Amino acid sequence: MGRLLRPLFSLLLLPLALLLAAPTAQAAMDVAKQVLIGHDFAGMDLRGATFNLTNLREADFHGSDLRGASLFGAKLQDANLSGADLTDATLDSAVLDGTDLRNAVLENAFAFNTRFNNVLIEGADFSNVPFRGDVLKTLCASASGTNPVTGRNTRDTLECS
């Protein structure tokens, strides 16, 4: 190739090489209707993941990023969600019984028909989460602590009187 064409040819190939080397965007994980009892999701980036109607009993999500995730109808009995970011997550109709939500951020999550029994909520941030009156009363009875990420008091985020 001539001296003038070689640099021109290299410039034409550069965009193609960059395109091929660029990481491809991955779709959010979808594990709806699965049985993932005791699965380890600790510290994972699960933004936008779908866990609808999934059995996640005893699963470990501590420190995970679940922003915008859908856990509609998920079974989360005895699951560890401590320190997880559940901002904008959907938890409607999920079952949280013995679930660890300590220091979790649930800001703007949707959890109106979620069942909360014997949950650990010390330091959890429930800002802008709508609750039924009976659930709110139960949560306020055990609410304490301040979220280490948002600096908000759990009782204040629940608007406990």
What would you say this structure looks like, in words?
This protein is mainly α and 161 residues long. It is 20% helix and 4% strand. Strands 1-2 form a two-stranded parallel ribbon. The longest helix has 17 residues, at 5-21. The protein is globular, with a radius of gyration of 22 Å. The N and C termini lie far apart (80 Å).
Q: Supply the helix-strand structural class.
A: mainly alpha
> Beta fraction of the residues?
under 5%
Q: How widely separated are the two ends?
A: 80 Å
What is the N-to-C succession of helices and strands?
A: HEEHH
Number of helices: 3
Rounded to an integer, what's the Rg over CA atoms?
Answer: 22 Å
Total beta strands = 2
Give the low-confidence spans.
7-26
User: What percentage of residues falls in helices of 4 or more residues?
Assistant: 10-25%
What's the SSE blueprint?
Elements (H helix, E strand, L loop, with lengths): L4 H17 L73 E3 L17 E3 L15 H10 L11 H5 L3
Parallel strand pairs: 1-2
Key terms for this structure?
single chain; 161 residues; mainly alpha; two-stranded parallel sheet; 3 helices
Short description:
The chain is mainly alpha-helical and 161 residues long.
